[in-house]
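I am writing to request your help with a piece of structural work I have in hand. Thank you for your consideration; the sequence and its tokens are set out here:
=====
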Amino acid sequence: MKAKQLSCIISVLMLLFSCGAHKEQNKRIVIGFSLDSLVVERWQKDLENLSRAARDLEMDIIIKIANQNADTQIEQIRELAASGIDVLIVVPNDAKKLTDVIKYVKRKRIPVISYDRLVSNANVDVYISFDNEQVGSLMADTAIRARPKGTYIIVNGAVNDNNAFMIHKGFMEILEPAIARGDITLLGEIWPEEWSSEAIRPKFEALIAQNKKIDVVLCGNDMLAETVIAMLSENRILENTLVLGQDAEISACQRVAEHTQFATIYKPVQLLALKAAGFALMLARKEKIPAEFTISDGTYLVPYSKLTPIVVTSSNLSETVIRDGFHSAEEVYHNISK
């Protein structure tokens, strides 16, 4: 999707979803939003955008934050189900641990939207996310165009997040032919237990100690990229290493502007949140979801609404995150001397 099309698409979707919002509605629809955590910057943006979209469609929203604890999230989801919500939107902390509680919610005839992360084996009503394989392939393709030969390291996302495996699949679709040709050497991979900077430090330190020449590091998100960049800098080898991440966090976009991070992947979460709110309205009204794809959750094929991610480098900051209002130019170039 071209960035300049985003505002137009949002306006059209808002019109479509709002046209019928008042028909045959005797009460306000209530969304329950169960969110893993706000540790990563982008989730605050998702929360703000989803809350705004729900209000615009005249729905109420109850928010629960699990603080990266699956047991807490399970308890909170049960509380939401008992409170009389009409639809549950969930960002799972652990795709497998939440299976039973999501099945419980569905037995209570409450529709479930899996938001950005897919709950395993639970047969949710719809999964809405960006094309996570494309996130990985875009990142790897951007890297390989800049460094077609050399040494690579992959710092994956959390092992309990299905998205991390989809992104990894995208990485390898691009990298494997170059590895087979001998153009690229994969020095190692890291699979942390959770989305945590501290979880990757010991293994990345070991990889740095063993390999003083590292050409590219592909990171599961910008938070991990920030840690990788700091560690490469501490070891005085950052200058010759390209680091890539995803989420287009403000700190990452600043690093891209400063040329300390080579690229990030921008996912227009305002559109994701808007579609989720629109789907919640449709599910509450027992309307069919227009999802054009399906995806396996391990047991079931579930409807999948897939959005397109965008590569951001220093050359297109103005045409992507700044033009969309995701970040301001003042924020992005805050550390650049005038």
